[in-house]
Write a structure and sequence with these properties.
Blueprint (H helix, E strand, L loop, with lengths): L16 E3 L6 E3 L4 E7 L5 E6 L8 E4 L3 H9 L2 H5 L7 E2 L27 H10 L7
Parallel strand pairs: 4-6
Antiparallel strand pairs: 1-2, 3-4, 3-5
Length: 134
């Protein structure tokens, strides 16, 4: 069933949805790469990938596909979304690839294919009255 915003609400039940600044398509937040502006030592700003989604500040989301990233940089939509000046530097070379076969975070906070963390599964199992081994 399609919701008010045209997104199929049955497949995204309770999951945050964001818009890719490259292709303008809406997708689940877990499928997108978050970009944030960081202040350099010399006072200028640079755009970096926030793989863990923990850096402070305003974020812009883009699909981790080369065509989406290139489109967002060429159209300067990353700069507009982050409300930066025209002199901001975009530094995405150190961003690890995401998707099938990509290296994922290690530890209890890494996500599986469904976007769920190991920590979240163990916590829910504990609240059901028994603890599953994960």
């Amino acid at each position: 069933m399609k919701g008010r915003n045209g997104v199929d609400s049955s497949t995204r039940a309770g999951r945050p949805v964001r818009t890719c600044v490259g292709c303008r398509r809406r997708d689940e937040q877990a499928a997108l790469l978050r970009l944030v502006a960081r202040r350099d030592d010399d006072g200028s700003s640079s755009v970096v990938a926030d793989e863990r989604r923990r850096l402070p500040g305003r974020g812009a989301y883009v699909h981790p596909r080369p065509e989406c990233v290139e489109s967002a940089v060429a159209r300067r939509s990353v700069i507009r979304a982050l409300r930066l000046t025209a002199t901001a530097r975009i530094d995405l070379a150190d961003a690890p690839p995401r998707g099938a076969g990509a290296a994922r975070m290690k530890g209890p906070h890494r996500t599986d294919r469904t976007g769920e963390t190991q920590h979240g599964r163990a916590r829910r199992a504990c609240h059901r009255g028994h603890r599953k081994r994960v």
